[in-house]
Amino acid sequence: MNVRLLLDRIALGAKLFLTDRSLKYFPPDFTFRRPLLSLLDKHMKRGDECYLALFRWECPAAYADMRNDLLPVLQEWMRRQLRKLPSQLGDERDLIGMDQYGPQEFVVLIRGDRPAEDEFVPASLYRKLDRYRHALELGAAGVLPEHWLHLKLTGTYVPLKSVYQEGGTTAEERLKDAYQFALALATNQVTPQVITARRQLDQILQKGDISVLAQPIMNLNNGDIFGWEILTRGPAASVFHLPDQLFRFANQSKQLSKLEFLVVKHALAEVASRRIREPVFLNVTAVTLGHPMFLSHVLQCLERHPALFPSQIVFEITERHEVEDFRAMVQTLERFRKFGFRFAVDDMGAGYSSLQWIGELVPELIKIDRSVIQFVDRFAVKESLLRAIVTAAREMSCEVVAEGVEREEEADVLFRLNVGMGQGYYFAKPNVLLREEEREAFQETKERIQCRRDQVAS
């Protein structure tokens, strides 16, 4: 017998005597023992709220020929990095276990808080997991060859008590259902669960069952509110409550433009009812922007609310959706600009990142993706990228907004580089739009911005 094979069998036999908890990190494939299932079963019997996080790497078709060389490197790297997740979550006891379910699929089982009535996954847990997903993408950029950096890591989060389970009651059934649903959402598979979800999306669009929140964009020179980004929420306690799932599934279901038409209608009605005077940022994809009826739809919405005017509206064109025909897109933007609408390039520095976006589209504003801002104080390459974008924007007379600012140290870098505007949890969380007379709480934010800016300047 091969010596290596013999040693592997001895090591596997030794693990049979280890406790389930000691095998929660990528356990061996036993035929008669499943440590993760046993751990999950214990948590569920105690009444714990348990969640499944699916992290899945996506390789663009252009790089499919490199997939076989890429996967072993990614698999080993992902295993090492995911072992660091407990420290990111804040308490190792919240980690139930993790395993690799496929060549590109990694599953993490987590204990979390009970979701609020309007949540599918607790917002606090969602933010932690999504921050970790961004950290993984950043880390991969530092170890993979340059031509592999177009890989994208999708994060899908599902409660084990999902409303889309087909009657599953045991821990094994619930785990299987949750994984299949998460994988279907991530890969656009058509399963019974997805068909059920698609019916719900149809109902959402028919009834207009969405709501909007807003996150302020702060002027980093004086601490005032510059404008508001409108954020969409689906029905409470559904898989579509948070925007990532809602818009991703609408895109997969070929209903993205229909959803974005609805968002504009609701957003402008809410802005008008709150008598908002500052600029309002609305996310829109290039496909919807080029829809032959979109401009007339927006103008009709504004006619219903005479207090609003086109120059108050800033359309954020997400840079995660590639623009194939820049000439056609420039012509589309010019039609809107004739009425006074303005544009921002969103997610700059992520996805199909390229200075071609600002060179061709000449936006009035540039929004720098949070993947660039996150820990910008710790990574010199991030600060260099931020500096390059800011310099290019100034030369083109574009204003700059830094998104995803969550830490004081990140804000300090923005002050030092004279970035004009910032947005993120460090300044304010998403909430309902506030009338001018309701904004007493922002006085503290204004004073903090002024104080930190003065300290950095000195």
Structure write-up:
The chain has 458 residues and is α/β, with parallel strands linked by helices. The protein folds into two domains: 15-189, Alpha-Beta Plaits; 195-457, Alpha-Beta Barrel (TIM Barrel), CATH 3.20.20.450. The chain has helices at residues 3-15, 35-45, 67-82, 85-89, 123-143, 171-187, 192-207, 243-252, 256-273, 286-289, 294-304, 326-337, 356-361, 370-373, 380-395, 408-416, 442-457, and strands spanning 49-58, 95-100, 105-112, 152-159, 211-219, 225-233, 280-284, 313-318, 342-348, 365-368, 399-402, 421-422. The strands form two sheets. Strands 5-6-7-8-9-10-11-12 form an eight-stranded mixed barrel. A four-stranded antiparallel sheet has the order 2-3-1-4, sandwiched between helices. The longest helix has 21 residues, at 123-143. The chain is globular, with a radius of gyration of 24 Å. Mean pLDDT is 81; it is low at 6-18 and 163-167.
Question: What radius of gyration results from the CA coordinates?
Answer: 24 Å
* Helical stretch tally: 17
User: How would you write the strand order of the largest sheet?
Assistant: 5-6-7-8-9-10-11-12
CATH superfamily of the largest domain: EAL domain
What percent strand? 15-25%
| Separation, N- and C-terminal Cα atoms | 71 Å
Number of strands: 12
Mean pLDDT: 81
Structural class: alpha/beta
Q: Estimate the helix proportion, in percent.
A: 40-55%
How would the global form be characterised?
globular
**Low-pLDDT segments:** 6-18, 163-167
**CATH domain fold name of the largest domain:** TIM Barrel
SSE arrangement, N to C: HHEHHEEHEHHEEHHEHHEHEHEHHEHEH
Total of domains: 2
Q: Major sheet: size, sense and barrel closure?
A: 8 strands, mixed, barrel
CATH architecture assignment name of the largest domain: Alpha-Beta Barrel
CATH secondary-structure class of the largest domain: Alpha Beta
